[in-house]
Amino acid sequence: MPDLGPHASFIWLAYGAAVVVLAGLVAWLRADLRAQQALLTELESSLTRGRSAKPRSGRRKPTGKRTKDRKP
Amino acid sequence: MNPFVLLVARDLKLAWREGGAVFTALGFYLAVVAMLPFGLGPDLNLLSRIAPGVLWVALLLSALLSVDRIFHNDFEDGALEPMAGGPLPLELVAAAKSLAHWLSTGLPLVLAAPLLGLLLNLPSEAYGMLMLTMLVGTPAVSFIGSIGAALTLGLRRGGLLLSLLILPLQVPVLIFAVSAVTVSVTGPGSPLPALAILAALSLASMVLAPLAAAAAIRMNLQ
Amino acid sequence: MQKYANPTRFMTFSGAVLPWLTAAAALLLAVGLYLAFFVAPPDYQQGQTVKIMFIHVPSAWLAMLGYTVIAVSAFTSLVWRHPLADVSAKAAAPIGAAFTLLALVTGMLWGKPMWGTYWVWDARLTSVLVLFLLYLGLIAIWQAIEEPSRAGRAAAILALVGFVNVPIIKFSVDWWNTLHQPASVARLGGPAIHPTILMPLLVMAVALTCLFFVLHMTAMRTEILKRRISALRLRQVTDAAGA
Prior knowledge:
The complex is a heterotrimer of chains A (72), B (222) and C (243).
Chain A: H1 8-53
Chain B: H1 3-18, H2 20-40, H3 44-67, H4 69-77, H5 80-85, H6 90-119, H7 126-151, H8 158-186, H9 192-221
Helix pairs in contact in B: 1-6, 2-3, 2-6, 3-6, 3-7, 3-8, 6-7, 6-9, 7-8, 7-9, 8-9
Chain C: H1 2-39, H2 53-80, H3 83-115, H4 123-144, H5 148-180, H6 195-242
Helix pairs in contact in C: 1-6, 2-3, 2-4, 2-5, 2-6, 3-4, 3-5, 3-6, 4-5
C-alpha cells in the first residue's frame, strides 16, 4: 500500500463509507428477497392445503394486480 | 361568462369567506421573519444583507402552508369529481384553482413583504425589485405548489410530505428571484437576466403544472 | 395471461443474468480498487486525496443514472401501463438515494482536505443535495400511499415533474454559484485527466454501474414477490369468506 499522504484518514473514511453503504444495501436487499421467498412458499403451501380440503376449479395464477384500496 | 373565469371567481369568493387561511399564512410569514433576529442577533447590517433571501424563503414557507387548500376542500366535499367530468377540462380546473390561490393568498403575502422588510432593514433601493420579483415569481410558487397539493390529496400528514416534495422544485424560483434583488442593489451587472428567467419559470409553470396536477387528481379520484 | 407473463419472464431472465452480473461487478471492483491504490499516482494539486474521486464521481453518475431509470420507468408506467414499470421505479429509488448519499459523504470527505471545510456550497455538491431531496420525496410518496398501483402513479407523476426540473435546478444552481463563489476556487478534478487516473475511474464507474443493476434487479424480484404475496393473501381472505 503506497503512502496515502497527510490526509490518509479522509481516504479511508471515504472508502469505508462506500463499503458500509454498499454492503448495507446489498445485505438489506438480499435479506428482504429471502424473507419474501420464504413468505411466498409458506403462503402457497397453506393455500394448497386449504384447497385440498374443498373441491375447487383448477389453480389459477395470481394476477398481483388491482388490490382494492383499503382506506375508508 | 366562460367556465374558467367562473371557477376562479368561485374559489376567490370561497377564500374570502373562509378568510382564516389567508390570515394564518400572513401571520406565519410575520412569525418566521420575526424569529430571525432572535436567532441571528439584532445587528441591522447583517439583517439588511440577508433580508431579500429571508423574505423570499419565509414567503415560500408561508405559501406552502396554504397550498394544500387548493384542492383539499373540494376533494373532501366530493365536489372535485363533478368538476373532473364537467365542461372544463381538468387541466383548466387545476389552473383556475391555482390562479385563485395566487390571487387570494400569494398576492397578500407579496403585499405584506415590504412591511416585513422594514423589520429586517431591507435596503431602500431593494424594495422595488423585491416587489417585482415577488409579483413575477409567486405565480410559480402557487402553480408548482398545486402539483404537491394534488399528489397528497387525502393523505394523513399530507402537509409535511407536501413540503418535502415541493421545496426542491422551488429552488430555481428562489435562486433567480433573490439574485435579481441582490444584483439590483449591489451589482454587478443588470438584474434583468435573472428577472427574465424568473418570468420564464413562472410562465412555464402556469402551463405545465396544471398538466401534472390534473393527472394526480385523476389518480386520486379513482 | 399476457399481462402476467411479463413479471414471470422477468423473474426467469433476472435469475439467469444475476449471477453473471454479480461476478462481473465483483471482478471489476477488485480490478478498480487495485488500480486505484497501486497504479494511480498522487495528483500534483490534491495529493493522494484524489483517490476519493474514484468513489465520488461514479457515485454522482449513478445518482443521476438512478433518477433517469426512475424517470424512464415512470414514463413507461404512465403511458403504456407496463406492469413492470412501477416495480422498476419503486426498486430504483432507495438504491439511487444510497448512491446519492454516498456521493455527498465522499464529496464532503474530499472537500475537507481540499477546501478546509466539510461542506461547500459549490454547484456540484449543491445540485446533488437537491437531487437527494428529490429522491427522499419519491421514497416518501411510495410509503405514504397504501395501494400499490396508485402509489406507483403518484410517484411516476412526481418523478417526471422532478426529472423535468433537474436541468433547470442544475442551471439555477450553477448561476447561483457563479454569483457567490470567486472564480479562483479549484475545479474538482483539476486540469486534463491523465490516463493513470482515468483508467481506475472508468473501471470503478463500470463496476459500480454493474452493482447498481444487480441491486436493481434484486429489488425488482423482491417487489414482484411482494405483489404475489399480497394477491395470495387476498385470495386467502376471500377463500375463508367463501367457505
